Amino acid sequence: MIPMSIFDPVRPLPASIAAEMAEAPFQSEHYHALFAIGIVLFVFTFMFNLLADYISYRFRQTGEASL
C-alpha cells in the first residue's frame, strides 16, 4: 500500500513485519517480501550506527581544547 498523500497514515517497518508474519504463507512472495523489509531495516540501522560512530570518533576530544 503506497500512501497517496504525505499526510496519509503509514505503519512502521517493524510493525508491518510483526503484524503480517503470522498471516504470510510459508515461501510465498509475501513471506519473502517481509524478509526483504527486515533486511532493509537492518541495513539502514547498520548504516546509521556506522555514521554515528564515525561522527563520534571525528568529534571526540583528546583532552585538549580542540575545536
Q: Nutshell version of this structure?
A:
This protein has 2 helices and no strands. The chain is an all-alpha fold and 67 residues long.
Features:
mainly alpha; 67 residues; 57% helix
Please count the beta strands (DSSP E, at least 2 residues each): 0
Question: What is the CA-based Rg, rounded?
Answer: 19 Å
Give the DSSP E fraction (strand runs of 2 or more residues).
under 5%
Structural class: mainly alpha
Distance between the termini: 47 Å
Major sheet summary line: none
Number of helices: 2
Sequence of secondary-structure elements: HH
Structure, described:
The mean pLDDT is 87. It is elongated and about 50 Å long. Helix 1 (13-20) runs antiparallel to helix 2 (29-58). The chain has a domain at 28-55. It starts with 12 loop residues before the first helix and ends in a 9-residue tail after the last helix. It has 2 helices and no strands. The longest helix has 30 residues, at 29-58. It has helices at 13-20, 29-58. With 67 residues, the protein is an all-alpha fold.
Blueprint of the fold:
Blueprint: H1 13-20, H2 29-58
